[in-house]
Amino acid sequence: MRDKVEYVNFPFDKKGMGKFMDTLSTKLIEDEINIEEYKQVLNRANWLGYSTVIFTAPAFTDEDLICPPRTAKLREELFKKYAKELEENNIVIAAEIEKQLVASAKEELTKMGSPLMDYFNSGARGKFENNYKNMTLMRGIVPEFGKSGKYRVGLSNLIDGTSEQEQGLGANILIEAASGRALETARGGYLSKQIMAAFQGVELDVEGSDCGTKLYMPVLLTDDNYKEYMYSYIFDNSGNTVLLNSKNIKNFIGKEIKWRNPMFCQSKKYCEHCYGRLPYILGMKNVGLQYNGCAEKLKNLSLKAFHDMTVKLTSLDLRLIIKRV
Fold this sequence. Notes:
- By secondary structure, the chain is an alpha+beta fold.
- The protein has three domains: 14-56, no CATH class; 62-181 and 308-324, Orthogonal Bundle (Topoisomerase I, Chain A, domain 4); 217-285, no CATH class.
- It has helices at 14-29, 35-56, 69-81, 83-87, 91-112, 115-121, 128-137, 167-199, 272-275, 278-281, 293-304, 318-324, and strands at 140-143, 151-154, 217-220, 233-235, 241-243, 256-259.
- The strands form two sheets. A four-stranded antiparallel sheet has the order 3-6-4-5.
- The longest helix has 33 residues, at 167-199.
């Protein structure tokens, strides 16, 4: 593959490996490599990882799970400073404390050369913000079972031991996580069947089809969203239709594009120029059968909650949302 893939210089952790495989997937879609070459890379990557893991996999001891002294001091100071807010289960303050403690622990463990950081940085198993935080720093924000939108804040951790006052938080976590598997699987599965029944008749028109619409949606292309528009068609400044691919899409980053999309299609079946090129490359005609992926995603997220009950907070500026709409 050396003649077909440019030289890369980044760690082959989970994120780096994913980035590299994305590059190969793009080349496969655009016929720059064939399926056999792609298989060879997968097989060799598996061999490289699994044959060396017994020699390279990081190990850690009990000492690695002890909270670094500087982080422990910071935790004591923050708990004392915001004692009233934490007592009132102020989740905004709790989230900020979690953020500071996680950042401090990462910095200290990296300075110490702890193999624990290799374990988490590789992306092989677990998340620092979830597993290490719960084990060594604090439980943090915990949803209350059966009370939608209600949360409690736990200050204990698993290494030091859960306080008597917070014993119920552990039970809440177990019940909330287990309910996701028991209840959300059924809901997600039923929703998936409903979507398939509703959209099973949605088909694509013949390859190369164009309904001729002049309508489009203006979209600002950025480094964060450009991958979502790969293999879509846009209008250029001359009104001609252009297919976005790996060769030209970065020329449009930072610019507002005139994106053609299915909402404006004038055909009885979605034409290629409105729906995009990718389904045709993958040989998909009955695209409506793929829409159940939304329900499957929700179901999988509820299943993952069994292992990760981290609560994340996001700030929204309603003025920007209204302006965008």
